[in-house]
Structures are given as C-alpha cells and as structure tokens.
Specification:
This protein has about 375 residues and is of the alpha/beta class. Helix content is about 40%, strand content about 15%. It has 14 helices and eleven strands. The chain has a six-stranded parallel sheet, with helices on both faces. Helix 12 crosses helix 13. The two termini are about 40 Å apart. The structure holds nicotinamide-adenine-dinucleotide. Nicotinamide-adenine-dinucleotide binds next to helix 5 and helix 6.
C-alpha cells in the first residue's frame, strides 16, 4: 500500500492541503503541483466523490495538468486545483462556498481558485467576498465565463493543425464533427460556421442540439455515432478519455482537435493516433484559452491583450505539431517536452527556492521565442 507522500512523489507535487469545517460541512483538498513558474492557478471542482482516495487522485491529476497547461501557454503561473467533496446540486450553499474561500485564503496566495465542474461564475463571486485569490467571477473586474476564449483558442489550434497537416488553413467546406455542444462546443460551432465549415454535432441534451442545429444548420448524429462519421476533423468538447482502443479504430478524420480535458484514455492512445497518421492537437495546449482569460485578471483584465494571447495558441499548436513531425514523436509527447523544458529552465535560473515563485525572470518575449520548434530540440 502506498501513502500520501508516495503519491506526492509520483505526481511531483509541492503541497497538498486538506480542509475540514464541521460547521459548514466543508471537505476540501487543495493540490499545489508546482509554483516554479508562479502562483498555482486552477479551478475548483465540486463533486460527490465515491471516497477520499478518489478525491485525492483527482486533485493530484488535475493540478499536475494545470502546471503543464500554464507552462505551454507561456503564462507565469504554476499548476494547482481544488476539489470540494460535495454534490453541487444539493449541498452547495453560501456558507459552504465561503468556507472554501477561507481555505483558499489560508494558503496565502500560493493557490488561486477559479471555476471547474460544479462551480459557476456566481459561486466565484461569493468566494471573492472572503478571499482575493479567486478569478473568473463577474464582480470587481472579473473576467466571467471563459468558454468563449477557450473556443477561440481551439479554433486557432484547428487552423494550425490543418496547415501543418498540409491541408491549408481554410475551413470553407471542411467537415468538423463536434462531440458536445455545451459552453465551449457552442462557441466553437459559431467560429467554425462563420469560417464556412460544415458541422456535424452530437450532445446528450436535446435542447443544446436543437439550438446549434437551428442557428448553424448543423447535421445531427446520435452520441455513439460521432466517432465514425465521415469528417475531416473530430473536435471532442464533452468528456475526457474518449480517445481509446474502442473509439480510435472508428475514426475517419485526419485531425483530432477539441477542448475536452484529458482526451487520451492512456498514453499509448496518443501513439496509436500517431501511427495511424491522425494529427492530434494536445488537449492542454489547445484548450488554454480559458486559463489565459482568467489569468489576465491578475494584471488587470484587458480584452485586447487576452485576444492577442489566445490567438498565439495557433503558433503553439503549429510548433508542437512541426516538432512532432520532425522528430517522429507523438504530439502529446512534444507538448510535454515543451512544458518540461520551460520548467527546467526556470528551476535552473533560480535554484534552491522551493515553495517560492520563480516566474518573474522570464519575459513574454523569452516565452514566445521558446514556442518555436527549434527550442524543443
Ligand atoms: P459543458 O458542460 O458546458 O458542455 C459539455 C457538453 O457535453 C454538454 O452539453 C453535455 O451535455 C455534453 N455531453 C456530455 N456527455 C456527452 C456524451 N457522452 N456525448 C455527447 N455529448 C455529451 O462544458 P464546457 O464548459 O463546454 O466544457 C467542455 C469540455 O472542455 C470539458 O471537458 C471541459 O473540461 C473542457 N474545458 C472547458 C473550458 C471552459 O472554458 N469551459 C476550458 C478548458 C477545458
């Protein structure tokens, strides 16, 4: 049997904090994977986990993912995430949210919270009444719902993937199959439709489907048919782990590029896509638009700067895919290499500063120069 410190070692975490408040019923875990590049920013997930171990695994996995996402996006931020063990539909109330906010505050700015599954913009507003270490609210210069910026980043990444795979970057007449037309999927359909793409959509909620069908003239298929439809691009915008040994053999697309987190069920699924010649835009690199949007609050939210930074996702995906082609490594590994290179560089420049922020040494210019295929070598 392994203990918590074994888990921390395996995942490479700096800190995991457990919070309990008898009065409000709060059971929360804050996972700080890394502050090498800056304070650890990541959403809070409210979920009725089967047991504490499941909650711990989720916070460890998700917070590590945030370190990589921020590093590849060129942000001076570390990776963190929080989970609140509760059912957001029945257990959520103002007292619980404030109690969680106080837990965030107790970490003293090493962790900054935001929305994730089970949390809303309004919940962040409530949390912000007790801590300033929360972003993505609607009050006091809050950036609100990030899904439009996530979709815009995915749209940029799709164009880069088309270009690198030798299909030009025009979307006119290109068939895109979108799994999940919720917040991000809906906005993505809007960008794709305006660019002349043909949309094939699915969702388990009929109302969402009807809206997109009517607004953008999308073709609708059943949820289990989306993998095998005849299309150029498959855009997963619903669930994780949907690229696996059952679904990959069904794919007819040449590109997979969508917003869902943790799309590969296993690492080996990334190799399978690569060996089949399917270009995969790594999830955490293409879906960082939302993180870029909430992170912008920390410097005083400026929409123009956000749009500029989100549009750079094009260059990031292009660099990762070019490197993948040149070095014959799958794109998910090329993305990891880019993130790890940036982290290594940061550690090298300011060694022996565990638990402190080391971000400020790296200017944006330096970051962008790193986002070239050459820097990956
Ligand atoms: P959402 O809940 O608004 O939308 C997801 C949609 O997927 C819903 O309409 C749901 O009905 C549908 N869905 C669920 N299961 C399905 C299935 N089996 N088949 C087809 N459709 C199904 O969520 P969202 O905010 O649009 O996020 C979508 C994905 O992108 C998630 O994986 C999320 O983690 C990821 N993501 C979102 C953001 C953001 O800014 N919202 C940022 C980064 C990553």
């Amino acid at each position: 049997m392994t203990g918590i410190f074994d888990d921390l070692k395996d995942y490479g975490h700096e800190q995991v904090s457990f919070f309990h408040d008898e009065e409000t019923g709060l059971k929360a875990i804050i996972g700080i994977h890394s502050t090498v590049l800056g304070p650890a920013l990541g959403g809070c997930r409210m979920w009725k986990y089967a047991d504490d171990q499941e909650a711990l695994r989720d916070v460890l996995r998700l917070s590590r993912g945030m370190t990589y996402k921020a590093a590849v996006a060129g942000l001076n931020l570390g990776g963190g995430k929080a989970v609140v063990v509760a059912d957001s539909r029945t257990d959520k109330n103002e007292a619980l949210l404030k109690s969680f906010g106080r837990a965030v505050d107790a970490v003293g700015g090493r962790y900054i919270t935001a929305e994730d599954v089970g949390m809303t913009v309004a919940d962040i507003d409530t949390i912000r009444t007790v801590t300033r270490h929360a972003v993505g609210g609607s009050n006091e210069g809050g950036s609100g719902d990030p899904s439009d910026m996530t979709a815009l980043g995915v749209f940029q990444g799709i164009k880069a993937a088309l270009k690198v795979s030798g299909q030009g970057e025009k979307l006119e007449g290109v068939k895109v199959a979108i799994q999940g037309v919720g917040n991000v999927g809906y906005h993505l359909c809007s960008y794709l439709s305006a660019a002349g793409a043909k949309l094939i959509i699915t969702d388990i909620y009929p109302n969402q489907v009807k809206k997109v069908e009517q607004e953008f003239g999308a073709e609708v298929v059943a949820p289990d048919q989306i993998y095998s439809v005849d299309c150029d691009i498959f855009a997963p915008c619903a669930l994780g782990a949907i690229l696996n040994s059952r679904t990959i053999p069904q794919l007819k697309c040449s590109i997979v590029a969508g917003s869902a987190n943790n799309q590969l069920e296993k690492d080996e699924d990334g190799f399978t896509l690569f060996s089949k010649g399917i270009t995969y835009a790594p999830d955490y690199a293409i879906n960082s638009g939302g993180l870029i949007n909430v992170a912008a609050e920390l410097d005083g939210y400026n929409k123009e700067k956000v749009l500029n930074k989100v549009s750079q996702i094009y260059t990031t995906i292009e660099s990762i895919l070019e490197h993948s082609k040149k070095e014959h490594v799958p794109p998910h590994q090329a993305a990891d290499a880019l993130a790890e290179k940036r982290l290594k560089e940061a550690r090298k420049q300011t060694p022996n500063t565990s638990f402190g922020f080391r971000s400020q040494f790296m200017t944006d210019t330096k970051i962008m120069s790193e986002l070239t295929a050459a820097s990956l070598n």
